[in-house]
Amino acid sequence: MSSTTAGAPPAAAAARVETPFRRFVSEFAESRLALLGLVVFAIIALVAILAPWIAPQNPYDLAQLDIMDGRLEPGSVGGSGITHWLGTDDQGRDMLSGIIYGLRISLTVGAGSAILACLVGASLGMLAAYAGGRTDSLIMRLVDLQLSFPAILAALMILAFLGKGILNVVIALVVVEWAYYARTVRGTALVERRREYIEAAQCLALPTHRIIFRHLLPNCLPPLIVVGTMQIARAIALEATLSFLGLGVPITEPSLGLLIANGYEYMLSGKYWISFYPGIALLVTIVSINLVGDQLRDVLNPRLKK
Amino acid sequence: MTVFLLRRLIQAAAVVLAMSLLVFLGVYAIGDPVEILISPEADQIERERAIQALGLDLPLWQQYLVFLGNALRGDLGRSFVFNEPALQLILQRMPATLELAVGATVAALIIGLPLGLYAGLRPNSTLSKGIMAGSILGFSLPTFWVGLMLIMVFAVQLGWLPSTGRGETVEVLGMRWSFLTANGLAHMVMPAINLSLFKISLVIRLTRAGVRETMLMDYVKFARAKGLSPTRITMVHVFKNILIPVVTVVGLEFGGTIAFSVVTESVFAWPGMGKLIIDSINVLDRPVMVAYLMIIVLMFITINLIVDITYSLLDPRVRLEGKA
Amino acid sequence: MTPPTLQVRNLRTHFFTRAGVVKAVDDVSFTVDRGKVLGLVGESGSGKSVTGFSILGLVDPPGRIAGGQILFKGQDLAGLSEEAMRQLRGNRIAMIFQDPMMTLNPVLRIDTQMIETVLAHEKVSREEARQRARDALGQVGIPSPEERLRAYPHQFSGGMRQRVAIAIALLHKPDLIVADEPTTALDVTIQGQILAEAQKLCADFGTALIWITHDLSVVAGLADDIAVMYAGKVVEQGPVTQVLDQPLHPYTVGLIGSVPSRNKRGEPLRQIPGMTPSLLNLPAGCAFRARCPRAEARCAEPPPMAEYRPGRHARCIHPYEEAVAA
To answer: Where would I find the ABC transmembrane type-1 domain in this sequence (chain A) (predicted)?
Structure first.
């Protein structure tokens, strides 16, 4: 890879060996819908990261809010001279800014919980596969128990006992999600363990951690990536739902779900925008991640390959 | 069959026991049980008395046995807010949730099966592609937001359907039901559709995949070679085969539907168990939370058991294995 | 003079795939008379099964009949509507499939699957249909048919299931049965029983039978006539004893040579070199020439079907004129 630089002439490009990564990229790009999803998600992520620089207003800074600007329709100009393209909420908060900052929180919670759950789940899954016996059956029983119980309920109960807060939401999400990763890693690791190359590595008396990290784990990566992508979308949706129910993030740092909840009571009087636009933002985020995940699953699934 | 049943029952009992331990530990490990089980308004003497009465001065394992014993006698504590037994409180609200969940399941089958069947029989038609795109949306749409949008369009803008509540109810078998009155049914339409959104998508996908797989089977070609009408092939030979996985999944999902009705009930102010639990969490009515959790676990186990039995009745191959 | 039960003329069944047109059946002609058995022989992928499905009008997209005639008692099936075709299927023309484990619907009882076949073509009472089903099961040698009617397919062995499938095919005493390798998946002893029954039934009812197989030894004992297919074309046809004793086409010679037999013990088995060509990009001319020991430059021209001896047709420009020791 390193010898073939991007500036290579076309003739050299044709002669290039097809690396697995390159094949992966070209297969992924076969679905235009998935590419679109990737682009949209990249934009959303960028907007979330750059929130302080691109949002018209800092929605957390109470000094910038004017209660007189409350519940303005989309497109109206507020007292501070800002045009509120998506209207304002009951506090006079610019909805566009609220959504941009809300995305930031939703994405952080979603991605953060997914990564943490992945770490926890993958470790336990690997432990189950490698240790086998009692450890394995104990971990897998826990997984079964966790998966047979609806995520929303488990998260609800954990938050009920822990209380609100971003950290608590992340903990709850990790608790309800780790099992998916554990099952995935264990399944793949069990298959890989029986392969000759692992036996060869064991015959060479390579240390266990080397076998796990250099041989087993890389093979578990493709399914983990697929599960991880889908779980990020799930985590974002779940966080929004929990916040909507008033059990997620605190009022001071509204995520998309809380913004939607705030608009609930104004919906009945026809002030749709407070709930409508954050919902659209949430929907677009989830759909774009799912589109990417769907295609990843098709591309990375060895069973679908001829 | 009896052996099969017995084995499943023992398994179920073991899971209930495990869950009760988990709930017990959840209550006692996270936070102070005194705070959880005794009303915060109680004064010091009342607290002391309650601690003794609840056996909170006993060792943990003895406390668990007491908890288990009380639970077996149907005593899951009293609600702080309503000052009623928590169990009774939940059971009162159960019919509302059950009828909503059943309504959603029925809606999912009525809408999902024909659409999935069509998409499976004509996978390349434009309508099929639309159906499949719609099903992806059904998986991605946040339920509570769709609920709000339904209210906005059909209740606020068009005024066709009532936005919240259960409407008129009739008492049958000592429980109040909405679906037996026109007004109640009108109240039920939006929440049921909202709750079934995810399940409709699921049924569509399962049905479509099943139809496509089954259509390739030799026995379908053989059925055609027998000169059967396309209707008979679709409705009997194909449909009966795909019904097995669909029924299993929809059945398994019934528990999830009841769990997810928490969201729908909150959106539509539907006075069921889900609304009760959210309200209880918001006011920290912990005995109700504990009771709700135990009931949900029990419900889940029962549903799994019923699904297993139905499955074995539907698929003769499973039935035989049960006998052996 | 009554027309023969089935007369296939220049049948072409093509699959229009994205990669190109696959000529699975390309210019196939044969005739089967009442009470006669035609053995349709070839390697897998030679188009023999597609020929069978074409006769029943069961070719699935992207395949379709692109030309030729299928005259069933004088009536052209290729031009028939789907509904008219459906009324013939299972009624006048029946089919038996290769894998008996797969042909019966696993979730329906045997009686359901048999009664529906009766009711699809005749307005009779359910009870009478059941009676017919019971009789048909008895005919194919299934003991205690009344009891077996209430069973599910998985309660039968492979051989029994194939008998049930044959019983279903016999329900309307059809004029023609297309049997697509019906004994391939079965044990040798069961295979023998089923062959004997098939022969007897044809003789009893005057049913014409097309027996599709890759196994020459099956055809030798069963068929009256034989048609050998290669790459979508019939390369040789004629009365079975003549074709097997004095094959004209090099492919037929090769096929016969690859059958292990007692007489050749100790000799290495002969085999046809190479493999069946892909039907997608078939070379012009004789499709067999790449594997043919007698191939020459002229074989690049498509060889016509010619009658070399009375009733003996072959698609080869240099057939074995003398009897070859096979």
So the answer is: 103-293
Cα–Cα distance, B282 to A106 (Å, whole number): 22
Interface of A with B (CB under 8 A): 145, 148-150, 152-153, 156-157, 159-162, 233, 237, 240-241, 244-247, 257, 260, 263-264, 267-268, 270, 272, 275-276, 279, 282-283, 286-287, 290, 294
Helix (H, G, I), strand (E, B) or coil at C124: coil
Side-chain half-sphere CA neighbours of C125 within 13 A: 3
Calpha distance A228→A104 (Å, rounded): 19
DSSP secondary structure, B23-51, as one string: HHHHHHHSS-HHHHHS-TT--HHHHHHHH
Contact between B170 and B186 (Cβ < 8 Å): no
Domain chopping of chain B, boundaries: 2-72, 93-314
Q: Which two tokens stand for residue C156?
A: 């039968």
Which of C90, C98, C152 comes nearest B225 by C-beta?
A: C90
- pLDDT (tens, 9 = 90+) of chain B, 324 residues, equals 677 778 778 877 887 888 788 777 776 655 566 666 666 677 777 777 777 766 666 777 777 787 788 777 777 777 777 778 888 888 888 888 988 999 999 999 999 999 999 988 888 888 888 888 888 888 888 888 888 888 888 887 787 887 777 777 777 776 777 776 777 778 888 899 999 988 899 999 889 888 888 888 888 888 888 888 888 888 888 888 888 788 778 877 888 888 888 899 988 888 888 888 888 887 777 778 888 888 888 887 787 777 777 766 666 655 544 443
Domain C6-82+213-263+270-325 homologous superfamily, CATH: P-loop containing nucleotide triphosphate hydrolases (3.40.50.300)
Distance between CA atoms of B222 and B241, rounded to whole angstroms? 15
C154:B316 CB<8 A? yes
Kindly state the tokens that stand for A85: 């393209």
Tell me the C-alpha distance between A257 and B94, whole Å: 27
Residue position matching structure tokens 């890879």: A1
Number of H helices, E strands in chain A: 13, 2
Give the CATH number, domain containing residue A145.
Answer: 1.10.3720.10
Number of domains in chain A: 1
The distance in angstroms from the start CA to the end CA of chain B is: 9
> CA nearest C43: which of C201, C274, C238, C220?
C274
Tell me the residue range of the domain where A142 lies: 21-27+32-54+95-304
Superfamily covering domain B93-314: MetI-like (1.10.3720.10)
Chains B and C touch (3+ CB pairs under 8 A): yes
Peptide linkage before C62 cis (omega within 30 of 0): yes
β-strand pairing of C225-230 with C37-41 = parallel
The answer to whether B214 faces chain C, any CB pair under 8 Å, is no
Using alpha carbons, list the distances in angstroms from residue B134 to B106, B112, B143, B240, C266. Answer: 19, 11, 14, 25, 68
Output the pTM of the full model: 0.77
